[in-house]
Amino acid sequence: MIRPGQYVRDLLQGSPGTSVTAHGWVRTRRDSKGVHFVQLSDGSSFQDLQVVIAEGAIEPELLRRVTTGACVRVEGELVDSPARGQKVELKARAVHVFGAADPASYPLQKKGHSFEYLREIAHLRPRSTTFGAVFRVRHALSFAIHRFFEERGFMYVHTPIITASDCEGAGALFGVTTLDLANLPRTPEGAVDYGEDFFGKRAYLTVSGQLEGEIFASAFTNVYTFGPTFRAENSNTPRHLAEFWMVEPEMSFCDLEGDMDLAEEFLKYILQYVLDHCRADLEFFDKRIDPGVLGTLELVADSSFERITYTEAVRLLERANRSWEFPVRWGADLQSEHERYLTEETFGKPVIVTDYPKEIKAFYMRANDDGRTVRAMDVLAPRIGEIIGGSQREERHDVLTARIQEQGLPLDAYWWYLELRKFGSAPHAGFGLGLERMLMYVTGMKNIRDVIPFARTPGHAEF
Ligand code: 4AD
Ligand code: MG
User: How many CB atoms lie within 10 A of CB 260?
Assistant: First the structure.
């Protein structure tokens, strides 16, 4: 087993003269007169460990198997490195090849591959430079998320993956069933009889843990859930996945202002965390993927977000004097082009838009006194558009009942959600951050399929 202190990351900080053992995969090998250079990676850092094998140090037969993609163990001594950008390199004394990789057929060659091609080899792409960086940043962001909430006394709650209720009321649900699709049980009326199904009723993969999060916020005050969520919307865009990870805090005794304050503080905190802990990875993105991204992140980490109402946003868009693909009109949802205009051209930073028309938002958002809008907020980020969606929740039993009916949703499915408003109802609010949208923002990667280990999109569920 590799113990802390033996990761490539640690070895790179080691002192010359130390005897060490390194494990990893060969990224490249370069042969020069009397010496062979092997770049070794174990995924622990952006930088590889340079292994130097002197001619004759190991058997020629063994050396022939040390090729790109091979998995090896190297024993030797750390020595001062004459090469630029690294303090030490590993002078090999003994090499063991765990698994060779045929150089002719290894799919991950040194030449730059397209991201499309790399998606087809998602079992190997984590070993590439770009995806190594993406997944290290993904890990760091996830850790920062937990740390942010821990420092603020939030309780982490595991909300269910399988559910019988549609949180967003949008109907983009994946059904979960054990019924034999070729031989469905029928009710006397001829409908599918889900009473015969595993759960005795229709069940789905969750689109959001919010409703159950609200249950816990009514007992533990401040909570968050962080897990996979599923949407069967057939939108083949660079910003949509059928399976993605969402972070959802829920706070009792909190209104929309408090919700926005937390969202802004949260985004800046996790941004600052990756700036502090993933420097080399971010510098790579800045150099190779999205020039300028690093500077933007640093700027955003200590600027304040713009806050405007939906009505103001519509006014700004109308005044823009543009021919929009989707016409701007009060009551219509903001499209990606509108979100980008506001964040990139009008303000040049993240923008929080509040108080959307009730018709285009979910049933649980608190109704404003104007009768037309709800206490919703979307955080929009340059390039990405919506990165966070949240709201103050409707805590009034009668208003909520009316809203559920207004939207044509079945009241009985939400009986327990309504009961929370009957027994000790509290003003409360929360939001959801799409982890992959955040990763796109941080890394500058342009397709959401390239910031999740194994993307699920219409027609794709390989791996
Ligand atoms: O705006 P959404 O739909 O909000 C909710 O689900 C609320 N229940 C959250 C809450 O208040 N607790 O989704 C929240 C975020 C979006 O802003 C976006 O970042 C991300 O989830 N998201 C997606 N990410 C990738 N693929 C998709 N299909 C996504 N749909 C939403
Ligand atoms: Mg939304």
Answer: 21
Q: Looking at the predicted structure, is the pLDDT value of residue 1 above 90?
A: no
Pocket flag, ligand 1, residue 210 (CB < 6 Å): yes
Query: 82 — phi, psi (to 5°)?
Result: -75, -15
How far apart, in whole angstroms, are the C-alpha atoms of residue 158 and residue 225? 6
Numbers of helices and strands, H then E, in the chain: 13, 16
CB burial of residue 311 (10 Å; 0-12, 13-18, 19+): middle
Ligand 1 center–CA 186 separation, angstroms = 35
d(CA 265, CA 253): 18
**Cα separation of 249 and 209, whole Å?**
10
Residues with CB under 5 A from ligand 2 (ion): 389
CA 387 to centroid of ligand 2, rounded, Å: 8
Between helix 435-443 and helix 293-301 the angle, nearest 10°, is 120
CB 60 within 8 A of CB 73: no
**pTM to 2 decimals?**
0.96
- Residue 249 CB contacts under 8 Å (≥ 6 apart), including other chains: 149, 154, 213, 222, 223, 224, 262, 266, 430, 431
- Ligand number, closest to the Cα atom of 379: 1
Give pLDDT, residue 74: 97
